[in-house]
Write a structure and sequence with these properties.
The complex is a heterodimer of chains A (114) and B (113). Chain A has 114 residues and is mainly β. Chain A has no helices and 11 strands. Helices cover 0% and strands 50% of the residues of chain A. With 113 residues, chain B is mainly beta. Classes of the chains: A mainly beta (114), B mainly beta (113).
Amino acid sequence: AAGVIQSPRHLIKEKRETATLKCYPIPRHDTVYWYQQGPGQDPQFLISFYEKMQSDKGSIPDRFSAQQFSDYHSELNMSSLELGDSALYFCASSSGTGGSYEQYFGPGTRLTVT
Amino acid sequence: GEDVEQSLFLSVREGDSSVINCTYTDSSSTYLYWYKQEPGAGLQLLTYIFSNMDMKQDQRLTVLLNKKDKHLSLRIADTQTGDSAIYFCAESKLPEAGNMLTFGGGTRLMVKP
């Protein structure tokens, strides 16, 4: 079965640079979630989108922005990168924010900021 | 996370049963989940339980929910070395507060041959 696709899988950036992470949800899934997992920590919710509209917002820094496109893929844009942004960034997808309780995660993008 | 707590580590022998525990604080949690994360990999949804259920069984996995004590457990029968991973419990408050997941800190399960 098709899974959530994230690209790139690994990314190395320097401080103050920008990064764009991409997420392609499972086909026919219309809701996308972004999570950040620091080293040795649990995943923290950043932001979610349902039908191309932002649905919930968590602990996402103002330096980050995200959007969901007409084909339901999503991009997380990160600017003025800091060392503390080094983490695994997961995207998850589900079918419908009001009715689906199953979130399926992608393999993650490992961002290293040097 | 602060709202969901797990013990850090569990070690069992191959063939034994493993029980991973989780406590949560928010009584409005509606769905409770177990995810498995292998080293360097993503989060695999193992199972979930709705808050009006006491138990759910799925092959080798049994989830028990004590809503009064806000305690959730995952039992893995006949634990195998391939079960070695970090197990996260998570809760959501769908639909009242969206479906974002709040995770516990994870329990590292080590299975010895």
